[in-house]
Amino acid sequence: MQKTILITGCSSGIGLRSAEILKQRGYRVFASARKEKDVAELKAKGFESILMDVNDSSSIQEALQEIFKKTGGTLDALFNNAGYAVPGAVEDLTREMIRTQFETNVFGAMELIHQVIPIMRQQGHGRIIQNSSILGIITMPYRGAYNASKFAIEGFSNTLRQELRNSPIQVSILNPGPIESHFRNNAYKSYHGTLSEKHSVHRDSYKKMEQHFFNPTPSERKFTLAPDAVVNKLIHALESRRPKAHYYVGFPAHIFAFLRRILPDNMLDWVLIKITKEEIHS
């Protein structure tokens, strides 16, 4: 029987590639996006694309109603992939900037899970996969809002996994390192809409970020992987009889997760600050 999956954030990057590969594997993929033009492009590629803005409860409800109408009220899997980054030093982040970060990266995912769990319980099976980040395990300067949102996803998902331990629903978290996507471009747009003209004690660092973090050279991308690396882990989380709780994607993700376990906080801070300085000053 054909498996069904809802994937959020399918306009590009990990979401789009996940939809492509899973469709090739025989899944019935509901590929969601928040813009009409992206939905139209996905439909033109042969996807069952759904308009969904994870920041909007009514949009989530309408999208799910449409999906359940097409599937007869079932859904085998949910991949919460939609997300973006609001860059900036913590002291420069306004309440509204942090709120928008959490609306997309956290609250939308939570609401979707809240809606699909009863369906999965009723049908007797289900997989929920969260696309977190290695920045849900460790932190780096100038990514405070994003770090916080991914740590929130980690805590929420770990608790959910514990609560569903004796249920037919499996929960997994993906923790990618650097992946080829529009992530940095979208972060740059967010930066220009909020911090680029702000007078800040971090102004010099922001300028260097403009030159390097947002526009890395080929040598600076040496550890960046194609989205397929994430999809490979996603497939295991979907199809393994015993999916893992966490899937680390790429060398940086594995090494940082290891350092998190073995180093005291002050040592880990030194390593991460040094890496960040090299990144924005290179």
Describe this structure in words.
This protein is α/β, with parallel strands linked by helices and 282 residues long. It has a single domain, classed as NAD(P)-binding Rossmann-like Domain (Rossmann fold). It has helices at 13-24, 36-44, 57-71, 95-123, 144-163, 183-194, 203-211, 228-239, 251-262, 265-281; strands spanning 4-7, 28-33, 48-51, 77-80, 126-131, 169-176, 246-249. Strands 3-2-1-4-5-6-7 form a seven-stranded parallel sheet, sandwiched between helices. Helix 5 links the parallel strand 5 (126-131) and strand 6.
* CA gyration radius, whole angstroms: 19 Å
Overall pLDDT level: 90
Across the major sheet, the strand order is 3-2-1-4-5-6-7
Give unreliable regions as ranges: none
General form = globular
Q: Estimate percent helicity.
A: 40-55%
The number of strands is: 7
CATH topology: Rossmann fold
Order of helices and strands: EHEHEHEHEHEHHHEHH
Q: What's the tally of helices?
A: 10
Structural class: alpha/beta
Percent strand equals 5-15%
Number of domains: 1
Keywords summarizing the entry:
10 helices, 282 residues, 7-stranded parallel sheet, alpha/beta, Rossmann fold, single chain, globular, 7 strands
Topology overview:
Layout: E1 4-7, H1 13-24, E2 28-33, H2 36-44, E3 48-51, H3 57-71, E4 77-80, H4 95-123, E5 126-131, H5 144-163, E6 169-176, H6 183-194, H7 203-211, H8 228-239, E7 246-249, H9 251-262, H10 265-281
Parallel strand pairs: 1-2, 1-4, 2-3, 4-5, 5-6, 6-7
